[in-house]
């Protein structure tokens, strides 16, 4: 299954005028719409891709095992916040857009949840190096506009001491989902403190940043993604990070088929990261619908957790659901296994032009995370 069409084919600040809650805004400021926002709003939007007749057919009901034992403890709601790291931070957001810093470049991309007006001036927004235009749906295709000068397709970036390539893709993504820094930092610390080699499975692994963070921390990693392009990009990132000799298996395969086979083989993992799209297709046309297939996928993930497993992480983007839905599913999945399930949202906080001026928090995705302790 493909990760959220995030490959050139996926689920974490006002650098404000005043920086203070309730501060006054100069007259007329609330009407100052950055020209990049006006152009995005005025541009006709293409329709979201619809399911075909075959895709819309009634899903096959998967009967899950009725597990016994006590439910895990719970912590909720939990907001996991990222304020940026390495070469990334969120500068400003508003009017359905976000202004981000990725290394040397300032980038403007659609963000439906940025319902408020921007805090920074239109003049600052108009100094962006790249602006994504086209379908604002998460899975929508479009193109990049470079207002100042033409930029190359890729450029070097670094997060959590891992080097990788940013890339301007037709699906508005640039090769990393920085809101997940919160999960990656937890994983990095867990692997480093384990006192033993941990086996990490990264499902829907995209360009491999999470896999490289785990490997650099000392884990043995299996990375699964259905896109050959994404796997190729991940291998480039491995070389860029000087981790060519790290124990990473790169698997181009449908995620469900892979974990079904791993369960039959008796393979076990200590940490599983899973970041499924709401809709996707595997390399052989396998269809994935989040609500149809997520329960079975999590159930299989439980079966391939090792007896000394330390974590199972689920991130869910662009779905009409409450975090309570994934929370209760995760608790039921891990019933009888002890530990704790914490659920909520991943957010990124604005950090201003300097990367140090905290502002508003921008919600990016839902998550549920089971931990052994």
What report would you give on this structure?
It contains eight helices and 17 strands. α3 (181-193) runs parallel beside α4 and α6 runs parallel beside α7 (290-303). β10, α5 and β11 (248-252) form a beta-alpha-beta unit. The longest helix is centred in the last third of the chain and has 14 residues, at 290-303. It is an alpha/beta fold. Mean pLDDT is 84; it is low at 1-31 and 40-59. Strands 1-16-17-15-12-9-10-11 form an eight-stranded mixed β-sheet, sandwiched between helices. 46% of the residues are buried.
The profile of the biggest β sheet is: 8 strands, mixed
Helix content: 10-25%
CA gyration radius, whole angstroms: 21 Å
* Termini separation: 31 Å
Helix/strand layout:
Layout: H1 35-42, E1 73-82, E2 88-94, E3 97-102, E4 105-110, H2 122-125, E5 130-134, E6 142-145, E7 154-159, E8 162-167, H3 181-193, E9 199-203, H4 209-217, E10 220-225, H5 228-240, E11 248-252, H6 255-265, E12 271-274, E13 279-281, E14 287-289, H7 290-303, E15 311-316, H8 323-333, E16 340-349, E17 361-371
Parallel strand pairs: 1-16, 4-5, 9-10, 9-12, 10-11, 12-15
Antiparallel strand pairs: 2-3, 3-4, 5-6, 7-8, 13-14, 15-17, 16-17
Quick take:
This protein is of the alpha/beta class and 373 residues long.
Descriptive labels:
alpha/beta; eight-stranded mixed β-sheet; five-stranded mixed β-sheet; 17 strands; globular
